[in-house]
């Protein structure tokens, strides 16, 4: 009991309450960030972001208060920023785990950035920068919720990739390629093959197109060409 009263006399109970409040704030704010990712069904959701935010805040609190008993004025000096720098370096491994490439498209960058942001958010809470933590949480939701709506109103500049299965008769391949080029599509790959043994006059062309227009523009234009039997958009799991 003597140790407890000593802590009270030194005022550390009050400091402990403040530290707990900062940790709880990190828990709440990082949970909000994680909930947004969870609702969008991302690989790193509520649990991951909450743990990252709380852990970062805890590291900051340990760095600030965990070595008070060994400090000696003029002899032992503490640099709290050293632990913070290591948190910034270490969180990159967690973010890197959610980035992957699928069908020539890099995915997970936004979620990785969100994890990195959550670590910074937890560090701000642990560092006592409450107003800054609240403001950046609001900025997070502006970016995640309002920016996608804004981007939908802007002219689209992102290229789309699609695979089309084109069945045709006769010498129509050249007309197909010219049509796609005039629509602004570039061709990534092109393969030919007979549809089946009973349809020797029908040829199937599998073409991967890339462009700013949707695949439906190409399908509509190709279907109007003479000699075209059918045009289908291949599902994504059928692509190479």
Automatic annotation (TrEMBL):
Q: Which UniProt keywords apply?
A: Cell inner membrane, Cell membrane, Membrane, Transmembrane, Transmembrane helix
The segment(s) forming the MgtC/SapB/SrpB/YhiD N-terminal domain are: 23-150
Superkingdom assignment: Bacteria
Topology relative to the lipid bilayer, per the entry, is: Multi-pass membrane protein
Q: Does the keyword Cell inner membrane apply?
A: yes
Q: Which InterPro entries match?
A: MgtC/SapB/SrpB/YhiD_fam, MgtC_SapB_SrpB_YhiD_N
Q: Where in the cell is it found?
A: Cell inner membrane; Cell membrane
Can you list the GO cellular component terms from the UniProt entry?
A: plasma membrane
Q: Which family does it belong to?
A: Belongs to the MgtC/SapB family.
The name this protein goes by in its record:
Protein MgtC
Q: Which organism is it from?
A: Gluconobacter thailandicus
């Amino acid at each position: 009991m003597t140790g407890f009263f000593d802590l009270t006399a030194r005022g550390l109970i009050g400091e402990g309450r403040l530290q707990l409040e900062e940790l709880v704030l990190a828990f709440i704010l990082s949970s909000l960030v994680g909930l947004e990712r969870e609702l969008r069904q991302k690989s790193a959701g509520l649990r991951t972001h909450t743990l990252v935010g709380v852990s970062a805040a805890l590291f900051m609190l340990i760095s600030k208060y965990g070595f008070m008993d060994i400090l000696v004025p003029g002899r032992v000096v503490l640099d709290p920023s050293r632990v913070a720098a290591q948190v910034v370096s270490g969180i990159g491994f967690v973010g890197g785990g959610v980035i992957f490439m699928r069908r020539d498209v890099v995915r997970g960058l936004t979620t990785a950035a969100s994890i990195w942001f959550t670590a910074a958010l937890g560090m701000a809470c642990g560092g006592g920068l409450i107003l800054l933590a609240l403001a950046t949480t609001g900025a997070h939701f502006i970016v995640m919720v309002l920016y996608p709506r804004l981007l939908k109103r802007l002219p689209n500049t992102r290229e789309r990739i699609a695979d089309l299965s084109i069945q045709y008769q006769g010498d129509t391949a050249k007309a197909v390629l010219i049509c796609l080029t005039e629509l602004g599509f570039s061709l990534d790959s092109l393969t030919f093959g007979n549809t089946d043994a009973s349809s020797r006059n029908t040829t199937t062309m599998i073409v991967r197109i890339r462009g700013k227009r949707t695949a439906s523009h190409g399908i509509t234009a190709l279907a109007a060409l003479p000699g075209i039997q059918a045009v289908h958009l291949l599902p994504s799991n059928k692509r190479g």
